[in-house]
Amino acid sequence: MVIAPDKFKGSLRGIEVARAIEAGFRRVFPDATYDLIPVADGGDGTLDALVTSLHGTEIEETVTGPDGKPVRAAYGLIDAHSLGVVEMARASGLALVAPGTNDAMTSTSRGTGELIAAALKAGARRVIVAIGGSATNDAGVGALRALGARFLDADAEELPPGGAALIRLRHIDTGDLEARLAGVTIEIACDVKNPLVGPNGASAIYGPQKGASPAEVAELDAALTQFAMVAAKTTGVDVRDVPGAGAAGGFGGGFLALAGAQLRPGADLVFDVLHFADHLTGADLVVTGEGRLDKQTLSGKAPYAVAQAARARGIPVVAIAGTVTTTPDELEEMGIREAVAIEPQGMSIQESMRHAASLTEDAAFNLAKRLREDMK
């Protein structure tokens, strides 16, 4: 049996969900073989899932936060695969800044680049970057600068941090960046389709939630346009209209243009790294789950990816979640035979989150009993 859940956000890590499900099923099927593979969709929890499933380590560093102040942030290192894993939110996330105080004009992604640099120094030759939850709108320039790139104005002076300063960008020196990234593959988990600039671009769509006023959104869009034009002259890669280039304040576009990064759907990237399909060989049942199983799960979330992979091999899939709001038709579309919620009748969400592990085990136990009855 393969147990492959995502985290229950705010209560349980993916591995904790998997262990609780295993404990419940073992009470009914004590002799079964259990393969626990925490999964993620390329967003929050990706580092934890990959480090846990691939037996890596988390390594903490002091890096530059989005407001320029030092923060402690971890990256993942999986030595056996020469793989580094970085979550942008840990170093450059909006959650690191007091509510209402983020400055989208000057916030920097430098800390994310410092984590990438640390992973490379530790031996990584492939780096996966999960870019959700960023506070920045600087086209990844801060991170690229931490990796050796130089961004210069008309007087050949280094630009200050932040996206707004890019309106004065005239030249990009990538010599040290290219040397640092020689032989390195950078893959960015990216599920948004926004281009870098324009009415659906990084600044227009995500700038306001990062604190940008309408006037600042216009300034930032012009600044990212200037960046894209200079980047295209530098490398020949024009990312203004590339789907996904607008992800994380243009981080996707900046790394695509200057670091040769690949933008990949998050769940696809994670499942590829996990060699998830190999775990399904010989499986009789797959159990997946997440904190909230709903219509959004169909949009590339981890349980959907698990179910699709299992269905392609004719393996039945069941799910256990904090809450379940999907219709029977949506479950069928996902490829999930049955989904159960861990919330007992009359218990508040807050209370169920406090007791999530025991509730998950009980839900798994009851589900396993029903499955055993179906087998008779």
Strand order of the largest sheet: 3-4-5-6-9-10
Can you summarize the main beta sheet? 6 strands, mixed
CATH top level of the largest domain? Alpha Beta
Separation of the first and last Cα atoms: 18 Å
Q: Average pLDDT, to the nearest integer?
A: 96
Q: Number of helix segments?
A: 15
User: Radius of gyration from the CA trace?
Assistant: 22 Å
The CATH superfamily of the largest domain bears the name: Glycerate kinase, domain 2
What is the number of E strands? 15
Low-pLDDT regions? none
Classify the secondary structure makeup into a structural class.
alpha/beta
The number of domains: 2
Q: What percentage of residues falls in helices of 4 or more residues?
A: 25-40%
Structure report:
The protein has 376 residues and is of the alpha/beta class. The chain has 15 helices and 15 strands. It has a six-stranded mixed beta sheet with strand order 3-4-5-6-9-10, sandwiched between helices.
Keywords:
Rossmann fold, alpha/beta, 376 residues, Glycerate kinase, domain 2, elongated, five-stranded parallel sheet, six-stranded mixed sheet
Summarize the structure.
The chain folds into two domains: 2-38 and 280-375, Glycerate kinase, domain 1 (Rossmann fold, 3-Layer(aba) Sandwich), CATH 3.40.50.10350; 46-266, Glycerate kinase, domain 2 (Alpha-Beta Complex). The chain contains 15 helices and 15 strands.
